[in-house]
Amino acid sequence: MLRGKTAIITGAGRGIGRAIALQFATYGAKVVLNYRNSLSQVEELLQTIKNAGGEAIAIKADISKEDEAKNLIVEAVKEFKTLDILVNNAGINRDNLLIRMSEEEFNSVIDINLKGTFFCMKHAAQVMLKQRFGKIINISSIVGIAGNMGQANYAASKAGVIGMTKSAARELSSRGITVNAVAPGFIETDMTDALPDRIKEASIATIPLGRFGSAEEVAGAVSFLASESANYITGQVLQVDGGMVM
Ligand code: NAP
């Protein structure tokens, strides 16, 4: 499905990013695993991919810093010569009620989720424009569409990702580059593990499929958008949320 393609996945050491990287490698892509802190997890993932006969390298970069985001793209292209797919997955949440939210809590989420995605897209697009081919998939969130209590910063960042996805799709389409977003609902990872049980139970009650999703189920949607089956799809937001928002 992705044989011979090269892909960068940001935040690939854990959670959804790890599942995407593993699935891409299984489908035959050469993968660049970006991480910021999760060195041991990324080393374990590298080994897993290599043991299965796949190709992968790891590159450390804090994507909220433009020079590091740029270096991630440059080093990836140096290793694999092309860059076919970029998945902007890295993200954080720093939840608080609006009236209590500090400027630092607001900025830190915007800096990673929105500006980090912008930096990676900007530098990857420069490579993809020359190639006249590329697929960019940005991980947004259902919270960027519907909002959520205690997540004004996160919702703003993820709604921003959707606006940026659509703008980039319009700018880059004439050179054969597609740009789409995936908006997961509640997915079982470290990010949602931290939630109190009462919030988890209340959330499940709002999901028609009656359960949280898995990282692999998000990866499935990302793999589809990265594949040739999605060549005529750009500027779209694919919700992977068990029907939570419709
Ligand atoms: P997670 O388990 O908390 O993992 C977050 C990942 O982001 C880690 O790999 C982390 O890398 C990376 N990251 C954070 N800041 C970074 C930075 N400045 N530079 C590079 N990497 C950075 O989260 P997850 O649940 O897998 O979430 C992945 C994406 O899906 C996020 O964008 C999140 O907003 C989105 N999402 C998640 C859910 C959900 O329910 N879980 C729902 C909707 C959307 P290190 O460990 O190396 O720091």
Q: What key attributes describe this structure?
A:
246 residues, alpha/beta, Rossmann fold, seven-stranded parallel β-sheet, 7 strands
In short:
The chain is built from 9 helices and 7 strands; from the N terminus they run E-H-E-H-E-H-E-H-E-H-H-E-H-H-H-E. The protein is of the alpha/beta class and 246 residues long.
Tally the helices: what do you get?
9
DSSP strand content: 15-25%
Order of helices and strands: EHEHEHEHEHHEHHHE
| CATH-scheme architecture | 3-Layer(aba) Sandwich
Distance between the termini: 30 Å
Largest sheet: 7 strands, parallel
What's the rounded overall pLDDT mean?
Answer: 98
What gyration radius follows from the Cα positions, in whole Å? 17 Å
Main sheet: which strands, in order across?
3-2-1-4-5-6-7
Tell how many strands the DSSP assignment holds. Answer: 7
Give the uncertain stretches in residue-range form. Answer: none
- Structural class from helices and strands? alpha/beta
Q: What would the CATH topology be?
A: Rossmann fold
- Helical content (DSSP H or I, runs of 4+): 40-55%
